[in-house]
Every structure is written in C-alpha cells, then in structure tokens.
Amino acid sequence: KPGSTISYSISSSSPKTATDPAAELTVPFTYKVISVKGDETTMKISFGPSKVNGSPLNSSVELVDAILDDRGKLVKSSKQGFGNMTGFVLPEKPVKLGVPFSIKNESSINGSILEVTGSYTLTGFKTVKGEKVAVLKMVINGTGLASVKGGGTALLSVDTGQVVESRVDQAVTILQKGKSFTRQNNVTILRK
User: Fold this and answer.
1) pLDDT tens, 73-128?
2) pTM above 0.70, yes or no
3) In sequence order, which residues have a C-beta less than 8 Å from that of residue 176 and are 6 or more positions away?
C-alpha cells in the first residue's frame, strides 16, 4: 500500500579471535512503498547510519530506489549490486511442510559478486506477538567475493510474507592478499 513502511534492524556479531577483537555491526533499514503497479512495488529503501560496537561507523543514511516483485525479488535498483536486504524471496509456488526449496540472492560489493543460495524447509507454524508465522529452517552457501556457509531459522508472516525474524550462524571465508581467513558471525534481522 503506497505510503506504508516496514522497518528492520540487522545485526552481525563476531566473537573475539586470536587476531581480531569481537565486533558487532548494527544497521537499521526501512522499506517505504511509493507505488504498486500489478505485481511490482516501487520502494525507497533507506539504511544506516551503521554502528560498530555501539559507536557510529558513519553518520549517513543511504537511500536506494528499488522495484520488487510480489515475491520480494529485486527487479530493478538505483544502486548497482544492491540485493534484497532481508535476503529472502518467497518461492514461486506454495511449499509443503518438510519439502525444501532454494532461493538465490546476488549482490556486488566494489565490483565483486557475492552469490548466496539458501535452502529452506518449512518446518511448521507458530504465533509470535499475536501474529501467525511460518517457521523455516535454512542452510546458506555463498560463493564469489567470499565463501559463506551456515544455517539458522527464519520466521515469515503468514499474512504478508514479510520477514518477522531471521537468525543465521555462519562462517565467512575471505581471500585477501593471497591469504584466506575465516570468521564466524551471527546475523540477526528483526522487524520492528
């Protein structure tokens, strides 16, 4: 519905390692519906300002104009490589309990591509704060800019298809200056 907004907070935390301190990155983001035409929704997406360990990383709020289809798949974006911030696109057809389905999400950072494939399985339904949600188990694998492997759970609103909550534990391996290093992190997305 034009004028409506959906706000989220994403946090990514990594434990202390022998070479790196513990870190937590938090980024608020909001989808604002500008217009709806057929199965496409034009949105203005704002994200930021970001914080690391509670201190401002930057003071800017970045704005992206985007068109998403009725499943949440990015059709067009004013920012090259911008992917769906929640990382979730609804499947093309209804899914059955216990039957896995896959979704690919691609983004570009400084010209490098990161393609993440999520395998999801509907495990059941429950009520969270008075809202019926679908519970999905997920396994993710990413290639390109980094290798990403992990898993977790996502809760999707049965009425709207919106992500209500998503929690993923993952290992991210990055190749830098001919050497690779792996960092564990936990990513949580919460709808406000």
Assistant:
1) 888 888 766 666 666 788 888 999 999 999 888 776 656 677 888 999 999 999 99
2) yes
3) none
Looking only at the bridges linking them, the beta strands covering 100-109 and 74-77 are unpaired
Burial class (CB in 10 A: 0-12, 13-18, 19+), 23: middle
In tens, the pLDDT along 1-60 reads 899 999 999 999 999 988 888 999 999 999 999 999 999 999 999 988 999 999 998 888
Please report, to the nearest 10 degrees, the dihedral formed by the alpha carbons of residues 78, 84, 90, 91 taken in order.
80
CB neighbour list of residue 36: distance below 8 Å, 6 or more residues apart: 1, 2, 42
Q: 92, exposed or middle or buried, with CB in 10 Å at 0-12, 13-18, 19+?
A: exposed
What is d(CA 107, CA 86) in angstroms, rounded to the nearest whole number?
12
